[in-house]
Amino acid sequence: MHRESKGSLIILLSALFLAIVLFYLIDLFTLNYRGKDYGTSGNGNPGLLFVFPAVPVYLFMLVFIYKLSGSYYRRKHISLLWPAIIALLLLILCYYGEYQLAQSLIQQLGGGPHNPDSVIYRWSWLNQYTNTLFFNGFTFTIGVLLAVLISSCQELVRRRK
Predict the structure, then answer these.
(1) How does DSSP classify residue 37?
(2) What are phi and psi of 133, to 5 degrees?
(3) Within 33-80, where are the H helices?
(4) Per-residue pLDDT tens over the stretch 68-78
(5) What angle do CA 145, 129, 134 make, to 5 degrees?
(6) CB within 8 A of 32, min separation 6: which ones?
(7) Distance (Å, rounded) from C-alpha 91 to C-alpha 139?
(8) How many CA atoms lie within 13 A of 137 on its CB side?
(9) Share of the chain residues as helix, strand and coil, in percent rounded to the nearest 5
(10) For the chain, what is the radius of gyration of the CA atoms?
(11) Residue 83 in contact with residue 148, Cβ under 8 Å?
(12) C-beta of residue 115 within 8 angstroms of C-beta of residue 2
């Protein structure tokens, strides 16, 4: 393995680890609604403390994955059809999982922020109960798969020229 490749791998693994930890902390500090008998939390949104650093770390990681996978495809000249098909199928499964997660949480909260019967009525979509709608394993994987899929499609177009 080349020295440059080792450095890139260390950067990628560090960004991946940090992004996973931040997503986990967002999940850990997102409150679970326990029912009408317990009321709602007045503590604000503690998960938001980890959203702000998670976004740039995650975006950096995605751009790095995109660039590394593109350079890998250019160096190895491997077939890109199967990786693209597999990424697309996994992407569809993740979208379905994210949809189910969102529907379940919205139902548990009694609707969205515009529904007067909802726990989150008049709040924004990003609040102490819904952080995990946007920062979860499905959205994390969707981003990674999109970075790889876009990189492979770009390489396919480049090879056809």
Answers:
(1) G
(2) -65, -35
(3) 48-76
(4) 988 888 888 77
(5) 15
(6) 129
(7) 10
(8) 6
(9) 70, 0, 30
(10) 19
(11) yes
(12) no
Rounded-to-integer distance, Cα 35 and Cα 113, Å: 17
**Residue 114 CB neighbour total at 10 angstroms:** 9
Structure tokens at 18: 């940090």
Q: Taking Cα atoms as reference points, which of 154, 9, 153 lies closest to residue 85?
A: 153
* Residue 129 Cα distances to 5, 60, 104, 114, angstroms: 41, 26, 12, 15
Question: Which tokens go with 71?
Answer: 């350079």
Return the amino acid letter for 7: G
What would the pLDDT profile of 67-122 be if each residue is shown by its tens digit? 998 888 888 877 888 888 899 999 999 999 999 999 999 998 888 899 998 888 88
Task: Report residue 124 as tokens.
Answer: 């924004």
**Cα–Cα dist 59/63, whole Å:** 6
* CA angle centred on 53, ends 8 and 69, rounded to 5°: 25
